[in-house]
Amino acid sequence: MANGLSHAWRLLTVVRTLARHNALFPLDALEDPPLAVRLSRRIARLWYQARGGDEARPGARLATALEALGPAFVKLGQALATRPDLVGSEIARDLTALQDKLPPFSAEEARAVIARELGKPVDTLFATFDDTPVAAASIAQVHYATAPDGAPVAVKVLRPGIEKRFSADLESFLWFARIVERAEPKLRRLKPVEVVKTLEASVRLEMDLRMEAAAASELAENMAGEPGYRVPKVDWKRTARRVMTMERIDGTSLADSAVLAGEGHDLRRLAETIVQVFLRQAMRDGFFHADLHQGNLLVEADGTIAAVDFGIMGRLDRDARRFLAEILWGFLEADYGRIADIHFEAGYVPAGQSRALFAQAMRAIAEPIQGLSASEVSLGRLLAQLFATTERFDMATRPELLMLQKTMVMVEGLASGLDENVNMWTASRPAIEDWMRENLGPEARIADAIIDAGRLARALPELIRALEAGDEAPPKPLETGDDRPHLKGRTHRALWLVAGLIAGVLLGTLVTL
Predict the structure, then answer these.
(1) Does residue 182 belong to any structural domain of this protein?
(2) How far apart are CA 428 and CA 284, in angstroms?
(3) Catalytic site residue 317?
(4) Active-site residue identified among 94, 235, 291, 419
(5) How, if at all, do strands 305-307 and 297-299 pair?
(6) I need a surface site. Which of 42, 288, 305, 365 has the fewest CB within 10 A?
(7) Tell me: the pLDDT tens digits for 280-328?
(8) The domain containing residue 291 runs over which residues?
Protein backbone atom coordinates (compact mmCIF):
# COMPACT_ATOMS: atom_id res chain seq x y z
CA MET A 1 0.00 0.00 0.00
CA ALA A 2 2.78 2.40 0.95
CA ASN A 3 4.59 1.64 -2.32
CA GLY A 4 1.39 2.24 -4.27
CA LEU A 5 0.91 5.64 -2.63
CA SER A 6 4.54 6.51 -3.32
CA HIS A 7 4.20 5.56 -6.98
CA ALA A 8 0.90 7.47 -7.25
CA TRP A 9 2.53 10.60 -5.79
CA ARG A 10 5.43 10.25 -8.23
CA LEU A 11 2.93 9.86 -11.07
CA LEU A 12 1.20 13.08 -9.99
CA THR A 13 4.56 14.89 -10.12
CA VAL A 14 5.18 13.51 -13.59
CA VAL A 15 1.73 14.57 -14.82
CA ARG A 16 2.25 18.11 -13.48
CA THR A 17 5.59 18.39 -15.30
CA LEU A 18 4.11 17.04 -18.53
CA ALA A 19 1.20 19.48 -18.21
CA ARG A 20 3.62 22.38 -17.72
CA HIS A 21 5.16 21.53 -21.11
CA ASN A 22 1.83 20.69 -22.80
CA ALA A 23 3.06 17.12 -23.19
CA LEU A 24 0.02 15.20 -21.93
CA PHE A 25 -0.89 14.09 -25.44
CA PRO A 26 0.14 10.44 -24.74
CA LEU A 27 -3.18 10.25 -22.83
CA ASP A 28 -4.92 10.50 -26.20
CA ALA A 29 -4.00 6.84 -26.72
CA LEU A 30 -6.54 5.85 -24.05
CA GLU A 31 -9.59 4.35 -25.71
CA ASP A 32 -12.21 5.97 -23.45
CA PRO A 33 -10.43 8.29 -21.02
CA PRO A 34 -12.32 9.46 -17.92
CA LEU A 35 -13.76 12.96 -17.92
CA ALA A 36 -11.06 14.11 -15.46
CA VAL A 37 -8.34 13.04 -17.93
CA ARG A 38 -10.00 14.86 -20.82
CA LEU A 39 -10.40 18.02 -18.76
CA SER A 40 -6.80 17.86 -17.54
CA ARG A 41 -5.59 17.57 -21.12
CA ARG A 42 -7.61 20.63 -22.21
CA ILE A 43 -6.64 22.73 -19.18
CA ALA A 44 -2.96 21.91 -19.67
CA ARG A 45 -3.13 23.02 -23.30
CA LEU A 46 -4.83 26.33 -22.42
CA TRP A 47 -2.42 26.97 -19.54
CA TYR A 48 0.58 26.33 -21.77
CA GLN A 49 -0.70 28.75 -24.40
CA ALA A 50 -1.56 31.39 -21.78
CA ARG A 51 2.02 31.24 -20.48
CA GLY A 52 3.29 31.99 -23.99
CA GLY A 53 4.35 28.44 -24.78
CA ASP A 54 5.74 28.05 -28.28
CA GLU A 55 4.27 25.89 -31.02
CA ALA A 56 6.98 23.25 -30.83
CA ARG A 57 6.20 19.80 -32.15
CA PRO A 58 4.66 17.39 -29.62
CA GLY A 59 7.77 15.21 -29.57
CA ALA A 60 10.01 18.20 -28.86
CA ARG A 61 7.74 19.27 -25.97
CA LEU A 62 7.79 15.74 -24.57
CA ALA A 63 11.60 15.61 -24.83
CA THR A 64 11.88 18.88 -22.88
CA ALA A 65 9.53 17.58 -20.17
CA LEU A 66 11.46 14.31 -19.82
CA GLU A 67 14.74 16.19 -19.46
CA ALA A 68 13.14 18.24 -16.66
CA LEU A 69 12.03 15.04 -14.88
CA GLY A 70 15.57 13.68 -14.59
CA PRO A 71 17.98 11.03 -15.88
CA ALA A 72 15.70 7.99 -15.60
CA PHE A 73 13.09 9.77 -17.70
CA VAL A 74 15.73 10.70 -20.27
CA LYS A 75 16.54 6.98 -20.55
CA LEU A 76 12.82 6.23 -20.84
CA GLY A 77 12.51 8.76 -23.65
CA GLN A 78 15.46 7.20 -25.44
CA ALA A 79 13.77 3.81 -25.12
CA LEU A 80 10.51 5.24 -26.49
CA ALA A 81 12.50 6.56 -29.46
CA THR A 82 12.82 2.91 -30.49
CA ARG A 83 9.03 2.48 -30.42
CA PRO A 84 7.43 4.44 -33.28
CA ASP A 85 4.65 1.83 -33.06
CA LEU A 86 3.93 3.10 -29.56
CA VAL A 87 4.44 6.87 -29.87
CA GLY A 88 4.35 7.52 -33.62
CA SER A 89 7.23 8.05 -36.03
CA GLU A 90 7.47 11.85 -35.68
CA ILE A 91 7.55 11.77 -31.88
CA ALA A 92 10.06 8.90 -31.94
CA ARG A 93 12.30 10.95 -34.21
CA ASP A 94 12.12 13.96 -31.86
CA LEU A 95 12.93 11.78 -28.86
CA THR A 96 16.18 10.63 -30.48
CA ALA A 97 17.44 14.19 -29.87
CA LEU A 98 17.17 13.79 -26.07
CA GLN A 99 20.42 14.95 -24.52
CA ASP A 100 21.75 12.67 -21.79
CA LYS A 101 23.68 15.44 -20.05
CA LEU A 102 23.87 16.53 -16.42
CA PRO A 103 26.09 18.90 -14.45
CA PRO A 104 29.30 17.09 -13.46
CA PHE A 105 29.93 15.86 -9.94
CA SER A 106 33.04 17.05 -8.14
CA ALA A 107 36.57 15.89 -8.84
CA GLU A 108 36.90 14.90 -5.17
CA GLU A 109 33.95 12.51 -5.51
CA ALA A 110 35.36 11.09 -8.75
CA ARG A 111 38.76 10.50 -7.17
CA ALA A 112 37.14 8.85 -4.15
CA VAL A 113 35.17 6.44 -6.37
CA ILE A 114 38.31 5.51 -8.33
CA ALA A 115 40.40 4.95 -5.19
CA ARG A 116 37.70 2.87 -3.52
CA GLU A 117 37.10 0.71 -6.60
CA LEU A 118 40.73 0.15 -7.59
CA GLY A 119 42.24 0.09 -4.10
CA LYS A 120 44.86 2.77 -4.73
CA PRO A 121 45.01 6.58 -4.79
CA VAL A 122 44.45 8.22 -8.18
CA ASP A 123 47.98 9.68 -8.21
CA THR A 124 49.36 6.14 -7.89
CA LEU A 125 47.15 4.72 -10.62
CA PHE A 126 47.75 7.50 -13.17
CA ALA A 127 50.70 9.69 -14.07
CA THR A 128 48.30 12.59 -14.64
CA PHE A 129 44.57 13.00 -14.02
CA ASP A 130 42.50 15.94 -15.30
CA ASP A 131 40.00 16.97 -12.61
CA THR A 132 37.76 18.68 -15.19
CA PRO A 133 35.52 16.10 -16.88
CA VAL A 134 35.21 16.15 -20.67
CA ALA A 135 31.65 14.73 -20.57
CA ALA A 136 28.98 14.26 -17.89
CA ALA A 137 25.85 12.16 -18.44
CA SER A 138 23.12 10.69 -16.24
CA ILE A 139 25.05 7.57 -15.28
CA ALA A 140 28.73 8.53 -15.46
CA GLN A 141 31.26 11.15 -16.44
CA VAL A 142 34.60 10.94 -18.26
CA HIS A 143 38.02 12.35 -17.29
CA TYR A 144 41.18 12.37 -19.38
CA ALA A 145 44.30 10.92 -17.76
CA THR A 146 47.71 9.45 -18.55
CA ALA A 147 48.69 5.89 -17.63
CA PRO A 148 52.04 5.29 -15.86
CA ASP A 149 53.58 4.18 -19.16
CA GLY A 150 52.62 7.52 -20.76
CA ALA A 151 49.64 6.24 -22.76
CA PRO A 152 46.76 8.75 -22.98
CA VAL A 153 43.55 7.22 -21.55
CA ALA A 154 39.93 8.12 -20.84
CA VAL A 155 38.53 7.24 -17.39
CA LYS A 156 34.79 6.75 -17.00
CA VAL A 157 33.47 7.09 -13.42
CA LEU A 158 29.97 6.10 -12.27
CA ARG A 159 27.90 8.89 -10.71
CA PRO A 160 27.69 8.43 -6.89
CA GLY A 161 24.31 7.16 -5.67
CA ILE A 162 22.95 6.66 -9.18
CA GLU A 163 21.78 3.07 -8.59
CA LYS A 164 19.32 4.08 -5.86
CA ARG A 165 17.90 6.98 -7.85
CA PHE A 166 17.29 4.91 -10.97
CA SER A 167 15.84 2.01 -9.00
CA ALA A 168 13.07 4.17 -7.49
CA ASP A 169 12.04 5.63 -10.85
CA LEU A 170 12.15 2.28 -12.65
CA GLU A 171 9.85 0.77 -10.02
CA SER A 172 7.37 3.56 -10.70
CA PHE A 173 7.62 2.97 -14.46
CA LEU A 174 6.85 -0.71 -13.99
CA TRP A 175 3.91 0.03 -11.66
CA PHE A 176 2.36 2.36 -14.22
CA ALA A 177 3.03 0.01 -17.17
CA ARG A 178 1.15 -2.78 -15.40
CA ILE A 179 -1.80 -0.47 -14.82
CA VAL A 180 -1.81 0.48 -18.52
CA GLU A 181 -1.79 -3.17 -19.62
CA ARG A 182 -4.72 -3.99 -17.33
CA ALA A 183 -6.76 -0.90 -18.18
CA GLU A 184 -6.12 -0.75 -21.95
CA PRO A 185 -6.29 -4.21 -23.61
CA LYS A 186 -5.51 -2.78 -27.05
CA LEU A 187 -2.12 -1.61 -25.77
CA ARG A 188 -1.06 -5.08 -24.62
CA ARG A 189 0.23 -5.84 -28.12
CA LEU A 190 2.78 -3.07 -27.59
CA LYS A 191 4.04 -4.74 -24.38
CA PRO A 192 4.64 -1.66 -22.18
CA VAL A 193 5.70 -3.84 -19.22
CA GLU A 194 8.27 -5.57 -21.43
CA VAL A 195 9.54 -2.18 -22.63
CA VAL A 196 10.15 -1.08 -19.03
CA LYS A 197 11.82 -4.40 -18.14
CA THR A 198 14.08 -4.08 -21.19
CA LEU A 199 14.96 -0.54 -20.15
CA GLU A 200 15.68 -1.74 -16.60
CA ALA A 201 17.97 -4.52 -17.82
CA SER A 202 19.80 -2.10 -20.12
CA VAL A 203 20.30 0.49 -17.37
CA ARG A 204 21.55 -2.10 -14.88
CA LEU A 205 24.13 -3.25 -17.41
CA GLU A 206 25.21 0.34 -17.98
CA MET A 207 25.77 0.71 -14.24
CA ASP A 208 28.38 -2.07 -14.22
CA LEU A 209 31.28 -0.63 -16.17
CA ARG A 210 32.96 -4.04 -16.30
CA MET A 211 30.14 -5.10 -18.61
CA GLU A 212 30.75 -2.11 -20.87
CA ALA A 213 34.45 -2.93 -20.94
CA ALA A 214 33.63 -6.54 -21.85
CA ALA A 215 31.32 -5.33 -24.63
CA ALA A 216 34.10 -3.15 -26.04
CA SER A 217 36.52 -6.06 -25.89
CA GLU A 218 34.08 -8.41 -27.66
CA LEU A 219 33.30 -5.85 -30.36
CA ALA A 220 37.02 -5.21 -30.91
CA GLU A 221 37.60 -8.94 -31.32
CA ASN A 222 34.73 -9.27 -33.79
CA MET A 223 35.81 -6.28 -35.87
CA ALA A 224 39.55 -6.98 -35.91
CA GLY A 225 40.83 -6.42 -39.44
CA GLU A 226 37.74 -4.48 -40.54
CA PRO A 227 39.08 -1.72 -42.84
CA GLY A 228 38.29 1.82 -41.77
CA TYR A 229 36.92 0.95 -38.30
CA ARG A 230 38.33 0.16 -34.88
CA VAL A 231 37.49 -0.06 -31.15
CA PRO A 232 39.83 1.38 -28.47
CA LYS A 233 41.63 -1.01 -26.12
CA VAL A 234 40.43 -1.56 -22.55
CA ASP A 235 42.89 -1.03 -19.67
CA TRP A 236 41.65 -3.91 -17.49
CA LYS A 237 44.12 -3.15 -14.67
CA ARG A 238 42.30 0.15 -14.10
CA THR A 239 38.75 -1.06 -14.65
CA ALA A 240 36.20 -2.15 -12.02
CA ARG A 241 32.45 -2.02 -11.41
CA ARG A 242 32.33 1.79 -11.12
CA VAL A 243 35.45 2.73 -13.08
CA MET A 244 36.48 1.96 -16.67
CA THR A 245 39.72 2.99 -18.32
CA MET A 246 40.22 2.85 -22.08
CA GLU A 247 42.63 4.08 -24.72
CA ARG A 248 41.93 7.74 -25.50
CA ILE A 249 40.81 8.47 -29.05
CA ASP A 250 42.11 11.56 -30.83
CA GLY A 251 39.73 12.33 -33.68
CA THR A 252 37.01 14.54 -35.14
CA SER A 253 33.37 13.91 -34.29
CA LEU A 254 31.07 12.87 -37.12
CA ALA A 255 28.95 15.87 -36.13
CA ASP A 256 31.61 18.15 -37.65
CA SER A 257 31.12 17.22 -41.30
CA ALA A 258 32.51 20.56 -42.51
CA VAL A 259 35.67 20.05 -40.45
CA LEU A 260 36.00 16.49 -41.76
CA ALA A 261 35.72 17.72 -45.34
CA GLY A 262 38.31 20.41 -44.62
CA GLU A 263 40.66 17.74 -43.28
CA GLY A 264 40.41 15.95 -46.62
CA HIS A 265 38.23 13.01 -45.58
CA ASP A 266 35.98 11.35 -48.16
CA LEU A 267 32.51 11.88 -46.64
CA ARG A 268 30.81 9.42 -49.02
CA ARG A 269 33.28 6.70 -48.03
CA LEU A 270 32.75 7.44 -44.35
CA ALA A 271 28.96 7.22 -44.79
CA GLU A 272 29.16 3.89 -46.60
CA THR A 273 31.60 2.51 -44.01
CA ILE A 274 29.17 3.31 -41.19
CA VAL A 275 26.33 1.48 -42.94
CA GLN A 276 28.40 -1.58 -43.86
CA VAL A 277 30.10 -1.86 -40.45
CA PHE A 278 26.75 -1.74 -38.66
CA LEU A 279 25.24 -4.42 -40.90
CA ARG A 280 28.26 -6.70 -40.47
CA GLN A 281 28.02 -6.32 -36.70
CA ALA A 282 24.28 -7.03 -36.70
CA MET A 283 24.09 -9.81 -39.31
CA ARG A 284 27.48 -11.51 -39.20
CA ASP A 285 28.16 -11.32 -35.45
CA GLY A 286 24.73 -10.68 -33.94
CA PHE A 287 26.35 -8.08 -31.65
CA PHE A 288 26.22 -4.39 -32.54
CA HIS A 289 26.90 -0.94 -31.16
CA ALA A 290 23.39 0.39 -30.42
CA ASP A 291 24.18 3.98 -29.39
CA LEU A 292 25.37 5.41 -32.67
CA HIS A 293 24.92 9.12 -32.23
CA GLN A 294 27.50 11.42 -33.77
CA GLY A 295 29.46 11.98 -30.56
CA ASN A 296 30.21 8.26 -30.22
CA LEU A 297 32.02 7.97 -33.56
CA LEU A 298 35.31 9.81 -34.12
CA VAL A 299 37.33 10.00 -37.34
CA GLU A 300 41.08 9.68 -36.87
CA ALA A 301 43.66 11.40 -39.05
CA ASP A 302 44.00 8.42 -41.42
CA GLY A 303 40.21 8.23 -41.97
CA THR A 304 39.58 5.34 -39.58
CA ILE A 305 36.27 5.56 -37.67
CA ALA A 306 36.80 4.82 -33.97
CA ALA A 307 33.78 3.98 -31.81
CA VAL A 308 33.40 4.91 -28.13
CA ASP A 309 30.79 4.41 -25.37
CA PHE A 310 29.66 0.78 -25.33
CA GLY A 311 27.06 0.97 -22.58
CA ILE A 312 24.19 0.15 -24.97
CA MET A 313 24.73 -2.89 -27.19
CA GLY A 314 22.31 -5.05 -29.16
CA ARG A 315 22.25 -8.81 -29.75
CA LEU A 316 20.47 -10.94 -32.34
CA ASP A 317 20.35 -14.73 -32.40
CA ARG A 318 21.03 -16.61 -35.62
CA ASP A 319 17.37 -16.96 -36.55
CA ALA A 320 16.76 -13.21 -36.15
CA ARG A 321 19.89 -12.45 -38.21
CA ARG A 322 18.73 -14.74 -40.99
CA PHE A 323 15.30 -13.11 -40.88
CA LEU A 324 16.89 -9.65 -41.12
CA ALA A 325 19.21 -10.60 -43.98
CA GLU A 326 16.49 -12.26 -46.04
CA ILE A 327 14.06 -9.39 -45.51
CA LEU A 328 16.68 -6.84 -46.60
CA TRP A 329 17.63 -9.02 -49.54
CA GLY A 330 13.98 -9.32 -50.48
CA PHE A 331 13.67 -5.53 -50.53
CA LEU A 332 16.89 -5.18 -52.52
CA GLU A 333 15.62 -7.68 -55.11
CA ALA A 334 11.99 -6.45 -54.91
CA ASP A 335 10.94 -10.03 -54.08
CA TYR A 336 7.88 -9.27 -51.96
CA GLY A 337 6.61 -12.84 -52.06
CA ARG A 338 9.84 -13.98 -50.41
CA ILE A 339 9.53 -11.23 -47.79
CA ALA A 340 6.05 -12.49 -46.97
CA ASP A 341 7.27 -16.11 -46.80
CA ILE A 342 10.00 -15.19 -44.31
CA HIS A 343 7.55 -13.38 -42.05
CA PHE A 344 5.23 -16.40 -42.03
CA GLU A 345 8.04 -18.96 -41.63
CA ALA A 346 9.46 -17.02 -38.67
CA GLY A 347 6.03 -16.91 -37.06
CA TYR A 348 6.05 -13.10 -37.06
CA VAL A 349 2.70 -13.05 -38.88
CA PRO A 350 -0.05 -15.35 -37.57
CA ALA A 351 -0.72 -18.35 -39.83
CA GLY A 352 -4.35 -17.34 -40.42
CA GLN A 353 -3.37 -14.14 -42.24
CA SER A 354 -3.23 -13.86 -46.03
CA ARG A 355 0.25 -14.29 -47.51
CA ALA A 356 -0.79 -12.56 -50.75
CA LEU A 357 -2.18 -9.53 -48.95
CA PHE A 358 0.92 -9.29 -46.75
CA ALA A 359 3.17 -9.39 -49.85
CA GLN A 360 1.01 -6.66 -51.38
CA ALA A 361 1.44 -4.56 -48.22
CA MET A 362 5.23 -4.99 -48.38
CA ARG A 363 5.20 -3.86 -52.02
CA ALA A 364 3.18 -0.77 -51.06
CA ILE A 365 5.84 0.13 -48.49
CA ALA A 366 8.95 -0.59 -50.57
CA GLU A 367 8.17 0.40 -54.15
CA PRO A 368 8.05 4.17 -53.50
CA ILE A 369 11.61 4.22 -52.09
CA GLN A 370 13.41 1.95 -54.57
CA GLY A 371 16.39 3.76 -56.10
CA LEU A 372 15.95 6.95 -54.08
CA SER A 373 18.73 8.65 -52.13
CA ALA A 374 18.55 9.08 -48.38
CA SER A 375 17.54 12.73 -48.83
CA GLU A 376 14.50 11.66 -50.86
CA VAL A 377 13.28 8.96 -48.49
CA SER A 378 11.07 9.86 -45.52
CA LEU A 379 12.12 7.24 -43.02
CA GLY A 380 9.44 8.46 -40.64
CA ARG A 381 6.74 7.82 -43.24
CA LEU A 382 8.24 4.45 -44.09
CA LEU A 383 8.28 3.34 -40.44
CA ALA A 384 4.74 4.62 -39.91
CA GLN A 385 3.57 2.48 -42.83
CA LEU A 386 5.51 -0.53 -41.58
CA PHE A 387 4.08 -0.39 -38.06
CA ALA A 388 0.59 0.25 -39.37
CA THR A 389 1.04 -2.92 -41.42
CA THR A 390 2.13 -4.94 -38.38
CA GLU A 391 -1.02 -3.87 -36.53
CA ARG A 392 -3.23 -4.64 -39.51
CA PHE A 393 -1.87 -8.19 -39.72
CA ASP A 394 -2.00 -8.74 -35.95
CA MET A 395 1.79 -8.99 -35.58
CA ALA A 396 3.01 -8.86 -31.99
CA THR A 397 5.86 -6.48 -31.20
CA ARG A 398 9.26 -8.21 -31.47
CA PRO A 399 11.34 -6.88 -28.53
CA GLU A 400 14.59 -8.32 -29.92
CA LEU A 401 14.21 -6.22 -33.06
CA LEU A 402 13.30 -2.91 -31.42
CA MET A 403 16.89 -1.89 -30.66
CA LEU A 404 17.93 -2.96 -34.15
CA GLN A 405 15.21 -0.77 -35.71
CA LYS A 406 16.24 2.22 -33.60
CA THR A 407 19.91 1.76 -34.48
CA MET A 408 19.13 1.46 -38.19
CA VAL A 409 17.38 4.84 -37.99
CA MET A 410 20.46 6.31 -36.29
CA VAL A 411 22.77 4.79 -38.90
CA GLU A 412 20.78 6.33 -41.72
CA GLY A 413 20.87 9.68 -39.94
CA LEU A 414 24.65 9.46 -39.59
CA ALA A 415 25.11 8.49 -43.23
CA SER A 416 22.83 11.18 -44.64
CA GLY A 417 24.43 13.77 -42.31
CA LEU A 418 27.75 13.10 -44.04
CA ASP A 419 26.38 12.78 -47.58
CA GLU A 420 22.70 13.53 -48.20
CA ASN A 421 22.85 11.72 -51.54
CA VAL A 422 24.15 8.41 -50.20
CA ASN A 423 21.91 5.55 -51.33
CA MET A 424 21.21 3.31 -48.36
CA TRP A 425 20.36 0.29 -50.46
CA THR A 426 23.56 0.54 -52.51
CA ALA A 427 25.65 1.05 -49.37
CA SER A 428 23.97 -1.95 -47.72
CA ARG A 429 24.35 -4.40 -50.59
CA PRO A 430 27.99 -5.54 -50.02
CA ALA A 431 27.38 -6.49 -46.38
CA ILE A 432 24.10 -8.24 -47.18
CA GLU A 433 25.58 -10.13 -50.14
CA ASP A 434 28.52 -11.29 -48.01
CA TRP A 435 26.17 -12.59 -45.33
CA MET A 436 23.91 -14.35 -47.85
CA ARG A 437 26.89 -16.02 -49.54
CA GLU A 438 28.48 -17.14 -46.28
CA ASN A 439 25.30 -18.26 -44.53
CA LEU A 440 22.84 -19.31 -47.24
CA GLY A 441 25.21 -20.64 -49.93
CA PRO A 442 25.85 -24.38 -50.64
CA GLU A 443 28.77 -24.70 -48.20
CA ALA A 444 26.79 -23.06 -45.40
CA ARG A 445 23.79 -25.31 -46.02
CA ILE A 446 25.97 -28.42 -45.84
CA ALA A 447 27.53 -27.12 -42.60
CA ASP A 448 24.07 -26.46 -41.14
CA ALA A 449 22.98 -29.97 -42.12
CA ILE A 450 26.02 -31.47 -40.38
CA ILE A 451 25.22 -29.44 -37.25
CA ASP A 452 21.59 -30.65 -37.35
CA ALA A 453 22.80 -34.21 -37.80
CA GLY A 454 25.10 -33.81 -34.81
CA ARG A 455 22.16 -32.63 -32.73
CA LEU A 456 20.20 -35.73 -33.73
CA ALA A 457 23.12 -37.95 -32.82
CA ARG A 458 23.45 -36.27 -29.41
CA ALA A 459 19.75 -36.93 -28.86
CA LEU A 460 20.25 -40.66 -29.49
CA PRO A 461 20.54 -41.79 -25.82
CA GLU A 462 17.34 -39.99 -24.87
CA LEU A 463 15.54 -41.45 -27.89
CA ILE A 464 16.66 -44.95 -26.94
CA ARG A 465 15.46 -44.47 -23.37
CA ALA A 466 12.11 -43.21 -24.66
CA LEU A 467 11.72 -46.28 -26.89
CA GLU A 468 12.63 -48.60 -24.05
CA ALA A 469 10.21 -46.89 -21.64
CA GLY A 470 7.43 -47.23 -24.20
CA ASP A 471 7.43 -51.02 -24.08
CA GLU A 472 4.46 -52.07 -21.96
CA ALA A 473 5.39 -55.76 -21.82
CA PRO A 474 7.53 -56.61 -18.76
CA PRO A 475 10.88 -58.19 -19.58
CA LYS A 476 11.15 -61.95 -19.22
CA PRO A 477 13.77 -63.25 -16.80
CA LEU A 478 16.64 -65.05 -18.56
CA GLU A 479 18.93 -67.77 -17.30
CA THR A 480 21.92 -65.98 -18.79
CA GLY A 481 21.69 -63.11 -16.24
CA ASP A 482 20.74 -59.47 -16.82
CA ASP A 483 21.25 -59.50 -20.58
CA ARG A 484 17.96 -58.52 -22.35
CA PRO A 485 17.97 -59.35 -26.06
CA HIS A 486 14.61 -57.70 -26.73
CA LEU A 487 16.06 -54.36 -25.54
CA LYS A 488 19.16 -54.88 -27.64
CA GLY A 489 16.94 -55.31 -30.68
CA ARG A 490 15.02 -52.15 -29.88
CA THR A 491 18.28 -50.27 -29.33
CA HIS A 492 19.52 -51.41 -32.73
CA ARG A 493 16.27 -50.25 -34.31
CA ALA A 494 16.70 -46.85 -32.59
CA LEU A 495 20.25 -46.60 -33.91
CA TRP A 496 19.07 -47.37 -37.43
CA LEU A 497 16.26 -44.80 -37.04
CA VAL A 498 18.66 -42.04 -35.97
CA ALA A 499 21.15 -42.99 -38.68
CA GLY A 500 18.33 -42.78 -41.22
CA LEU A 501 17.31 -39.36 -39.95
CA ILE A 502 20.89 -38.09 -40.14
CA ALA A 503 21.33 -39.47 -43.63
CA GLY A 504 18.02 -37.94 -44.65
CA VAL A 505 19.06 -34.51 -43.43
CA LEU A 506 22.36 -34.65 -45.31
CA LEU A 507 20.84 -36.13 -48.48
CA GLY A 508 18.01 -33.62 -48.48
CA THR A 509 20.52 -30.80 -48.25
CA LEU A 510 22.63 -32.13 -51.12
CA VAL A 511 19.60 -32.69 -53.35
CA THR A 512 18.43 -29.09 -52.94
CA LEU A 513 21.83 -27.49 -53.67
Answers:
(1) no
(2) 13
(3) no
(4) 291
(5) antiparallel
(6) 42
(7) 998 889 999 988 888 899 999 999 999 999 988 988 888 788 877 777 7
(8) 250-440
